[in-house]
Write a structure and sequence with these properties.
Blueprint lengths: L2 E2 L18 E5 L6 E2 L2 E2 L3 H10 L4 E4 L7 H12 L8 E2 L7 H4 L11 E5 L5 H7 L13 E3 L1 H7 L11 H5 L22 E4 L6 H12 L30 E4 L5 E2 L7 E2 L1 H16 L7 E2 L5 H20 L13 E6 L2 H10 L7 E7 L16 E3 L2 H11 L8
Parallel strand pairs: 2-5, 2-14, 5-6, 7-8, 7-9, 9-10, 10-13, 14-15, 15-16
Antiparallel strand pairs: 1-16, 3-4, 11-12
């Protein structure tokens, strides 16, 4: 039975007069729908129930490392429910916005970026993918990986022999070489992206640190502003160094092992520790997206509203009017990302996000979650049936 942790404040019905649902769902993947690569019991049934009853949902995950099109094809097969990129957001999906830039951010399409994380150079290929449909594109043109740098200059990391065979098959020549005597002719990195969990923490940490200490992002240089107490932040990151982006703050995630394993948040903590030791505790300026950060929920809500309008409005010439989305049930297994993010997100559209915690992932039954959900249930199928009953759903729950 679900254990409710807050008094309910639901409307009498989540169904409009014409039968259109005024609610939707957002599901985490790892620990909710899948454990490692296998479907969790009840996951296919839960999504199938929503799909058959035309109730909108998106998948909102801090995972990544593959292009969205590849990931939804895999998930559709494992879960037996048709999924598309229109109802799927993974950790690095919002990075698409940085290719052409925003009102406050210069576009990076033609700049040189460092991308790390994931298997081999899959994340590089994701970052480069340019498809005809703009909403599916990334399209960074000049992508370098730490492995590219290591293979071009093995002495940049003294323990290079450990991963040399691995990098041999996944690297490319550098677009511009590292010139230690002439910075203006050396490789310049304009932004650093951690797309997915890094596999080689040591090399990636070293390259990222080198760039954060560099002069204007030229690899192999050291800024003379570092440590200057007359400057903000004692001169650290005050000399045009590349901006640093992390896509996932999760310290732990659920795998096939019986205990949660370190995720990208662990790598971020390692980089932070090295930075603190190097700079004497200067502020590390970086941008972190992914749950629980509001920017990710805002992006996800925009994706969900667009998907919902297309789904409920009809495909004919005459479109049905789609009423406002009143509530989103965020179903997750991690109190510090899924639950916290839903609890703290303040929708500009007035949509209420309701957190539902399942016991099939990171959360350990019998412990007190760091952030209190609306309800705690055994699994995702129970989460969906609980939410449908709470919204006054009159259809079949089987």
């Amino acid at each position: 039975m679900p254990s409710s942790t807050k008094p309910r404040r639901f409307s009498t019905s989540g169904i409009a007069a014409d039968g259109m649902p005024t609610f939707a769902f957002a599901f985490d993947i790892d620990g909710v729908l899948l454990r490692s690569s296998s479907a969790i019991p009840g996951a296919a049934e839960a999504l199938g129930l929503l799909h058959e009853n035309n109730i909108p949902f998106i998948l909102l995950t801090n995972g990544g490392g593959k292009h969205e099109s590849t990931r939804v094809a895999e998930l559709s097969k494992k879960l037996g429910v048709p999924l598309t990129e229109e109802n799927f957001v993974q950790s690095h999906t919002p990075f698409k916005q940085l290719v052409e830039g925003t009102a406050s951010t210069e576009g990076l399409q033609d700049k040189t970026i460092l991308v790390t994380g994931g298997d081999g150079d899959k994340c590089r290929k994701v970052a480069e993918i340019l498809v005809l449909t703009l909403r599916h594109r990334y399209g960074f043109k000049n992508v370098v990986t730490p492995g590219d740098i290591l293979m071009a200059h093995p002495n940049i990391w003294p323990f290079n022999q450990i991963f040399s065979d691995y990098y041999h098959n996944n690297t490319r020549p550098l677009p511009v070489d590292v010139n230690q005597t002439s910075a203006s002719e050396s490789l310049k990195i304009d932004a650093i992206f951690v797309f997915n969990d890094p596999r080689d923490w040591a090399l990636d940490s070293q390259i990222i640190l080198d760039l954060l200490l560099s002069k204007q992002g030229y690899l192999g240089t050291y800024s003379d502003k570092n440590g200057d107490t007359s400057l903000p932040n004692n001169g650290w990151q005050q000399d045009g160094q590349p901006k640093l982006f992390f896509s996932n703050p999760d310290l732990f995630w659920a795998t096939n092992y019986h205990m949660p394993r370190l995720g990208q948040g662990g790598f971020q903590a390692a980089v932070q520790g090295v930075w603190d030791a190097t700079t004497g505790g200067a502020q590390l300026e970086r941008t972190v997206i992914g749950k629980p950060h509001p920017a990710t929920y805002k992006y996800a809500e925009r994706v969900l509203n667009k998907h919902r309008t297309q789904m409920l409005g009809g495909s004919g010439e005459v479109k049905k009017k789609v009423i406002r989305l009143e509530r989103v049930f965020m179903v997750g297994d991690n109190p510090e990302s899924d639950i916290r993010g839903a609890n703290e997100y303040n929708s500009t559209h007035g949509t209420e996000w309701t957190s539902v915690l399942v016991k099939t992932g990171v959360f350990r039954d019998g412990t007190k979650p760091a952030y209190t959900p609306k309800v705690i249930v055994d699994d995702v199928l129970e989460a969906v049936t609980w939410a449908l009953k709470a919204e006054g759903w009159k259809g079949s729950l089987e």
